[in-house]
Amino acid sequence: MNPHTEPLVQPIYHSTTFVLDDASYADLRENDGLGVSWYSRVRNPTTDAAASAIAALEGAEAALVAASGMAAITTLVLTLCRAGDRIVVARELYGDSYELFARYLPRLRITVDFVSVAELEEWNEVIARGPVRLAYAETLSNPQLTLLDIPAVAALAHAAGAVFAVDNTFASPRLVQPLALGADVVIDSATKFLNGHSDVIAGAIAGAEALVTECRRTIMTFGSCLDPHAAYMLVRSLKTFAVRVDRQMQTAAAVAHQLEASPEVERVIYPGLSSYPHREVAERLLPAERGGAMISFVVAGGDERARRLMRHLTLATEATSLGGVETLISAPFNSSHYLMSPGERAAIGIEAGMLRLSVGLEEADALIADFETALRATAVSEVFAH
Fold it and tell me: For residue 383, what pLDDT is reported?
């Protein structure tokens, strides 16, 4: 390539189709066309560039990108599982992930058994009941922030001959690399920290080359491919991934400590706090001085107080999603887990008054002041006074 015309920035290959040559036909015959760019539903140079960058971050042999995080999860499950198979899944999951496992997979005659993510004895007991095709959990559960003991569950899954998949969205590969700890495959909602600008919907699957290739075959059939322009934006964002997330984690630690000191906050769940209920696992698996950029906390006064608190914030924004440069706050009862009943939420540790905070790139002092003001304004004594 002429060095004077070689692009510094990843080009967007908007073409749906590509010129066929002898190499293309050979790949179609020998590899079902999964190895070359001949049609963008299968492969595209821009989506391949995004996938390669994510594979490097997760320490994987290969990766692919999909139309969303849920598309990535569904693709993986449909690739691995058939009618009659059994899956063991942590019940503390993102709401739509839970819907997939609890509502839709049983319709395909796939048995799904749920366990508590932090209860290793329960994992062991349920896995031991019979053949298991897939074990599945989130690195940090949404929104309870329970840290998965990846090496321990990996050992249990592998002893049963199961594939162990981990959704790494909340942690991001900047905090945890599940493959290095024993997972077989990693899912990321690239919408979140990987893209980090609240302007792309995307998902990723990373793992061994052979498994990723089979997942690509599934995407080719079901059509859940990522648009090349979205892939280009993802590549752009990945260039700043490390500096963004490092700053977000630093600020999150400061905010978590300040929230814990507030008398208006009943409980703060953050892996970087000494009060974190899974401290032993955090000390083994997380880098020193890092607790992630997600905080969950419970305010006195229940869900109604939580709602009022969000409306009093001026810097943090009430919105779903996470991982962006803007600080976002949401209440699981009316966002990520709104499809669940109060009883179902309580059963997986989502308490009344719980809020989920995704820390962005604002100044820590400004965020802390914003929360202190909102907590004072919505205090029970203030409500009665007015």
Answer: 45
| Averaged pLDDT for residues 359-382 | 92
| Helical (H) or strand (E) element with 138 | strand 134-138
Which residue out of 133, 174, 192, 216 is catalytically annotated?
192
Active-site entry in 43, 133, 136, 167: 167
Q: Is residue 167 annotated as a catalytic residue, yes or no?
A: yes
Domain that holds residue 340: 241-385
DSSP characters over 303-344 = HHHHHHHHHH-SSSEE-S--SSSS-EEE-GGGTTTTTS-HHH
The tokens describing 313, both together, are: 């914030």
Count of structural domains, the chain: 2
CA 82 centroid distance within chain: 25
Has residue 334 got a pLDDT over 90? no
Query: What confidence tier does 381 reach under pLDDT thresholds 50, 70, 90?
Result: low
For residue 375, give the CATH number of its domain.
3.90.1150.10
Neighbours of 27 (CB within 10 A): 17
Long-range interactions of 277-280: CB distance < 8 A, separation 24+: 277/146, 278/118, 278/146, 278/147
Active site residue 276: no
Catalytic residue among 41, 217, 236, 308: 41
Note the pLDDT tens digit of each residue in 234-263: 999 999 999 999 999 999 999 999 999 999
Clarify whether 94 is annotated catalytic.
yes
DSSP character at residue 133: S
Same domain, 155 and 227: yes
Sheet holding 203-207, edge to edge: 62-66, 203-207, 185-188, 163-167, 134-138, 86-90, 111-115
Could you tell me if residue 6 is inside a domain?
Answer: no
Nearest to 205 by CA among 197, 195, 196, 216: 216
* Parallel/antiparallel/unpaired status of strands 134-138 and 86-90: parallel
pTM > 0.90: yes or no? yes
Q: How far apart are CA 32 and CA 259, in angstroms?
A: 55
Q: Is 279 a catalytic residue?
A: no
Q: How wide is the angle at C-alpha 97 spanned by C-alphas 126 and 358, nearest 5°?
A: 115
Among residues 86, 91, 94, 303, which one is catalytic?
94
Q: Is 196 left (phi over 0), alpha (psi -120 to 50) or beta?
A: left
